[in-house]
Amino acid sequence: MVDTGFRILAIETSCDETAAAVVAEGRVLSNVIASQAEHQQWGGIVPELASRAHLERIVGVTMRALEVAALSIRDIDAIACTVKPGLVGSLLVGANFAKGIAVRYRLPCVPVHHLEGHLYSGYLANPELPLPAVVLVASGGHTLLFLLERMDRYRLLGSTRDDAAGETFDKIATLLGLPYPGGPAIEQIARTAEPSIPFPRPLLKDGTYEFSFSGLKTAVRRYVAEQGQLSDDQRAAIAASVQAAIVEVLVTKTLRAAKEFRAPCVVVAGGVAANSLLQQQLRAAAAEHGIVVAIPERQYLLDNAAMIGLVAHFKVQLHGVDRYRRLDFTVDPTPWRIHRHGIAKHRPYTTVEFSL
Ligand code: KG4
Ligand code: ZN
Fold it and tell me: Residues with beta carbon inside 6 Å of ligand 1?
């Protein structure tokens, strides 16, 4: 067996992907993801179905991650698992499974914040990531803009006041009769049309790094109701116009943050980062200012365990492994306990050190 250094087996089950990965010294040896198709017919994630599907798959996915890494469980030095935020039942399956392995094989177990996984996933795209970096995390559940200042410190610059960017794609896709998840479906049909409908760009010029997408969704709902029966061309024009509106807001705010904080680098993570128009427009806008754009490859954009293993690696480097021998941590569905707007009165943005 090749000596790959300290090896972490990471487990991620916060939402509807059952995932396991092996990460050694920050290098990904395997990254296995089983996406749950059982939610498609419901147009969204059904929490109870998600927990059950995680239970059914977690052992197989973990075995496969070890197999791809060509390792046995006895070659592993630590376990890591996502403990927040997410669906509580789903988190419980992964965290309890991880603790079970930790007890059985006397291994430390590192609890990881899922959003820190997305936040640090830029390192999977570029291990030499120049700091500070502005990081946009845009997924089905979150739209967050961070300033990654140091390896162990970041600031939350803004988040969405209502719907997340991915959720907006998903809900508008449902309005248009397109399948779930809506982002890829909207992107696909948008290819054949021009963004000809001037849908609103909420909070585009408000000077903050906050987002709001529910007004856009309402505008589309109203527009669709006015049109009556939609032709394929109309549907494509709506899709292209919605995509253009969301992308313009995301690109504008991300780039403005990079300029304000003189960040040489921008990272986009989360499922929405797979969007080609977003990637294209961000790259074009960043290039004008000499800013580097790092976008992890697709397997690291969607919920995955490699990003969880990477954060665990950083935490072990920072705090030492003995801190993670206690297994008395628990799962928590909420992202942060701090009240951001309260803190914002005293400090312009919330500064978060590694939160766990
Ligand atoms: O990070 P992710 O896999 O997990 C969740 O937060 O659930 O993100 C999934 C989200 C969905 O809302 C999906 O519609 C969106 O990412 N998404 C996209 C694209 N691919 C996935 N949105 C826009 N364009 C895409 N190509
Ligand atoms: Zn996620």
Answer: 15, 139-141, 166-167, 169-170, 181-184, 187, 270-272, 274-275, 302-303
